[in-house]
């Protein structure tokens, strides 16, 4: 599965860790792949700490916090190649989660985005969305871009506020597509054992969770 989002900083890494933890709790062997890491952070490290998947890897890390294609250009390091990402997938795992960088149409390498990855592999996409004002259009745009490529989309709210306001509740009602998860704000800061025990309750069975209606659990 591809883990994409409506933009950068929406919670893709925490959602990836949650789905990995839920799938592992359901007995699946899970691999996580971060094709292009940019800036100083390591999403792989965060995911390893929170979810301890059977396998986790980063293909390339670029120092500058830019889209991967631009980060490759300014660093002089080789750009990411779509076929290299596809070749890095190992079919022996029950589930491989591939976390993009930023939103769906971010230039990953010369002439390709994570939408091309999903189209070429047939991978469905988790669309991580914000809870606050502006999320309805961002989410609808991402779902529309997936739909025209024949890619299935599963919407997950990356960080549901501890003190929701009216706009969060109306967004929850009006969120386009099918809502398959809601993670609480602060989930990424939970002690890993608590994170792993909690993760299935944030997600529907389609994402290896146990919640039949994530709207009801907030
Ligand atoms: N549910 C959550 N609980 C705690 N922190 C969160 C949650 N969701 C997001 N964050 C925090 O918000 C920031 C952005 O989240 P995250 O790194 O997961 O975004 P991303 O979509 O993976 O971004 P990128 O495009 O850089 O990979 C991080 O500092 C993360 O710790
Ligand atoms: Mg991330």
Offer a few descriptive terms:
single chain, alpha/beta, 7 strands, about 220 residues, Rossmann fold, binds adenosine-5'-triphosphate, seven-stranded parallel beta sheet, about 20% strand, 8 helices, binds magnesium ion
Question: Describe it for me?
Answer:
With 218 residues, the chain is an alpha/beta fold. It has one domain (2-207): Rossmann fold, CATH 3.40.50.300. Helix content is 36%, strand content 21%. It is built from eight helices and seven strands, in the order E-H-E-H-E-H-H-E-H-E-H-E-H-E-H. It has helices at residues 12-25, 43-51, 68-75, 82-87, 114-121, 135-147, 166-174, 192-202, and strands spanning 2-5, 30-38, 55-62, 95-99, 125-129, 153-160, 179-184. Strands 3-2-4-1-5-6-7 form a seven-stranded parallel β-sheet, sandwiched between helices. Strand 6, helix 7 and strand 7 (179-184) form a beta-alpha-beta unit. Helix 1 packs parallel to helix 2 (43-51) and helix 1 (12-25) crosses helix 8 (192-202). The mean pLDDT is 97. Magnesium ion binds next to helix 1.
Compile the SSE list and pairings.
Elements: E1 2-5, H1 12-25, E2 30-38, H2 43-51, E3 55-62, H3 68-75, H4 82-87, E4 95-99, H5 114-121, E5 125-129, H6 135-147, E6 153-160, H7 166-174, E7 179-184, H8 192-202
Parallel strand pairs: 1-4, 1-5, 2-3, 2-4, 5-6, 6-7
Helix pairs in contact: 1-2, 1-8
The structure holds adenosine-5'-triphosphate and magnesium ion.
